[in-house]
Input
Amino acid sequence: MASNAATAPDGATRPRSSLRKAAQRRSTIAFLMALPLILLIAALVVYPAGYAIHLSTLNKSMEEFVGFENFEYLFERETFWMVVWQSSIFAITAVVFKALIGFVVAHLVHNIPLKGQRKWRGMLLVPWVIPPAMSTLAWLWLFDSSYSAFNWIIEGLGGPRVPWLGETGWARFSVILVNVWYGAPFFMIMYLAALKSVPEQLYEAAEIDGAGWWQRMWFITLPMMRNIIAITVLFSTIVTFANFDIVRVLTAGGPIDTTHVFATYAFKLGIESSDIPLGAAVSLFMFPLLALAAIFILRDVNKRGNQG
Amino acid sequence: MADVQLRKLVKRYDEVEAVRGIDLDIADHEFVVLVGPSGCGKTTTLRMIAGLEEITDGDIRIAGEVVNDIPPKDRDIAMVFQNYALYPHMTVTENMSFGLRLKRFAQEVIAGRVSEAAQILDIRELLERKPRQLSGGQRQRVAMGRAIVRHAKVFLFDEPLSNLDAKLRVQMRTEIKKLHLRLRTTTVYVTHDQVEAMTLADRVVVMNNGRIEQAGAPTELYASPRTRFVAGFIGSPAMNFIPCVLEQAAGALRVAIPGGPSFDVPGDRTARYAASAGRKLLLGLRPEHVTEPGGAEHPSVQAFETVLEVTEPMGMETLVYFPMAGTQVCGRVDPGAGAMPNKRMTLVADMRHMHLIDEESGLVL
Ligand SMILES: Nc1ncnc2c1ncn2[C@@H]1O[C@H](COP(=O)(O)OP(=O)(O)OP(=O)(O)O)[C@@H](O)[C@H]1O
Ligand SMILES: [Mg+2]
Output
């Protein structure tokens, strides 16, 4: 095609040649080549999203258009605001701890001699590769207040029995704990890869420049890892915010709805109470919050571009 | 600024002994170049001076103080790495001032030093750029700037020019020399390029296999190498080594090349070589001492005939190659001498610059 255009006689008509030029422009070609993927994503994302918006405007029996009534109803419910609050606390706390633990463990693993490192890396990834619905079941048993290992140990040490899942505070703590346990290995592996990509000589140069351990961490490691940190935090925030299985299996939202997050609340309203439009309205609520987080984090990543 | 002393310095890795007992005194203001083939322990030595590598045995003193257990940051040295090791997320200014900022120098002092270094290195327009926006030569300058602003006692360079193209390398070589003439900072410079070593150094240290073969001024190493290794390593094209027999004839010595000419040994060398008479040795002659006849007559400049095999016109001279006693010998002739492949030609050997080498011990007699 390209050679065709190049050898085309000068007399070719104007509109046709400009069409050809457009076809030859790099951005056009790039767009055309990406088009199948764009269409696929559109089908997989836009259609369900559009359908959810449509659903959220119907009444409980899904026969009548009610506009924003579902949202208005939600806004008046105290439970809904508690879910907003609990989702945010759940996501933020869990992500912060996952990131911190992942960061520390990545450093520890990074400093293990290469021979043993693979073994540790493999073992530390285990929580992340087990389907969370299954591993959470194991946690559910561990948290059992009468017969479980945790309380047995605590009682053995002379402590009181802990109502892990039976009391709001402890239940909130427990779902976060399990989420951190499940998600930290992902951070660990990402940060480990980032650590390995920092050239050793930068640390040596910094050492000669007079930087101590903390200063090397602060001025070399963290800036070099910033993009990875930002992207993993964003990714994990989205996934954690939309978490369903851990909360569902562990507490199913209880006690008295205090551990519900958006997804489990939407499930409860939509499926269990068979008000699908109301559930759709709840799940739609995640979107603006996550979009906001994505914009903030990605703007920071873009600003610094691909350094290095 | 300071002097540096290495005493019986040893570095052993698990299986390899990379550095096997080095003694070296580097004077204040001196520019010392460590040179040698790949794997001879140059980098390891330099990194031990920097404190980046632990010392297995021996002592390092900087300004008289043993620094074996002092971390790099307290040794007051500056180092330029082969691949520059600039901080990618910092601008040129931030890169250069990093060390000073860590040491909490006053803002004005930092700004002053950075602009002074930028002036010296001619990188004033680049100060706000990030390393990825710089060319290789510019990065090299920034890396040197980072060393300069520190006003360190000692500069350490590890093959700083090896990532640059040939032309830039020559240019930066001159700049490094100018820089040293200006700052007079004690410098240890590692390279495997003997031309770089010869041109930059006050003193060249030739290393081989973890040991120092010879240390001395460039001209001294060139004119009187102590070992065959140094004789062959310094100089390009390399010195010719021709198998020969040292014969005694009527109180004089002759170098007889099997199947080739014989040359009289200059009278002032007789005493030096007398003990080796009758032995099989290697005659060492540099290409520039194998040349066309002409110039000043001297009894030690002795003619012989040969058939040239290959000629390489270099412009200012022509390199000629011909076989002798089973080796290929290189000579340098005037481009006007009419050297051509397969041509029979009379050449002269200037025996005043001859070396005799004991092949077994590798020592120059
Ligand atoms: N970390 C290490 N572990 C084991 N052996 C090493 C290590 N670093 C260097 N060596 C060995 O020590 C010897 C000297 O290495 P060094 O890097 O000092 O050589 P060099 O003279 O700088 O060579 P080059 O010109 O190739 O840079 C080599 O045989 C090398 O294989
Ligand atoms: Mg090296």
DSSP finds 15 helices and no strands in chain A.
